Amino acid sequence: MPSLPIVELRDASKSYGPVQALRAVTLACKTGEIHAILGENGAGKSTMMKLLSGVIRPTSGTVAVDGQTVALQGTRDASRRGIVCIFQELSLMPALNVGDNIVLSRPQTRMGMMQRAAYVQARACLDRIGADHIALDRTVSELTLAERQLVEIAKALYQKPRLLILDEATSALGADAVERVFAVIRQLRAEGCGILFISHRFHEVHALADVISVFRNGAHVRTFPAGTMDHGDIVSLMIGQSLERLFPPLAPMPAPETPPLLSLSRVGWENELHDVSFDVRPGEIFGLGGLDGQGQQRVLEAVFGLLSRVSGEVRIAGKAYSGRTPARSKSGEIGLAFIPEDRKTEGLIPALSISENLRLAALGGRLGTDLDPADQVRIKAILDRLELAYGTLDDAVTTLSGGNQQKVLLAKWLVLSPRCLLLLDPTRGIDVKTKAQIYTLLAELAAEGMAIVLQSTDYEELVHLCHRVAVFYQGRIARQLSGETLTPEMLISAAMGLAPQHNTGDAA
User: Which domains can be identified in the chain, with CATH numbers?
Assistant: First the structure.
């Protein structure tokens, strides 16, 4: 018996003044089916998702639930009908604890008091996705980005969805957490729930989807069964360019005799890092991989001076760098730039203008005041190089898409002309076309002699973009991969502690 549509868009369009965000889209989300949605930023994915979840209404066309045309009155109305959405920009209230954030999405009260059973159910939802380490009484603001994303997923499960919409819901998670979430999604599918899955990670789509729909320029291009089109053809549908052009050619590895720009020797921190040693040469892209929470994220924080009581030695261009602080790290003397993983809360101030955000990294230095003409020329050159799409530099950074906001975050550091770029998951939640632009920029910066350290949860980035990758397991480098050993299979096995625990030194 064929699956029945839970929700349908029927010839739905959405306009914002002269801008048409969605154009005459007809799409069905069915029971017991995982339906992946692919497309670059601006393709219409988010607009479609907001129509289905009641955030906005169509300018023309209709939304139908269980075959009946409806006018959804908001996300709470959609949730009552079984339509639950996990938005890319997390909706948790940071001042509340985990339990309250979850149960308030579907309050269960008696005489004005929240029922204890609600919190028992919240605990069960966290445990179901492998988040048993997250206590209900922890304040959300204390959680890591990956932990907040798990709470967001648990919050959605708590609402007992008939249609679950996930917008980049695994973008901050490591491979182990992703697989646990995927197991739950497959179980929901078996129970008859429909899943609408939006992701920029092709390996996740191929691993999970039953059906794939591609959007481009606000239009629904094609829907087809998963496995019937190869990777390259899908990319061509999305962005009009071949898969081979997604990652730029890798420049030759710097010669082994090239003196390293950044060196770590037996670096440790509390119980999260142990005896971490590696060198990064000018012109090299050095990757840090592993499952979530294995310490790799802490390495760059330790180098930049964000952590205290770090043991071991860090050297910059052969000189010991002790007493590390962010202010010293970004100075011309040291020349480090640090790109955090959460651009919204750690990298940018959304309410400020693009111009003001571009000056944030330089606060306390010459660029902390008004820009002189030479600075303005340099900033424009960087923005042109990044192909930033914007109106004027006085526009609020919130007017930009997520990918363009990430470009502003990169630009504000490149203005300082760093010698070494430290990046934490810089393409998380970014569309394919913008990813390709950032990949090209990183390859060009490396070719110009910059040392780059890239921590990523996307193993395709590590394999195709890096010269070498250090894979972390339980706070240590489990293995260093390069050349023929740098494959997805080797990355995954090393990340799970299955690879030989040797070759942890600096490999040429």
Answer: 5-239 (3.40.50.300), 253-335+418-503 (3.40.50.300), 345-417 (no CATH)
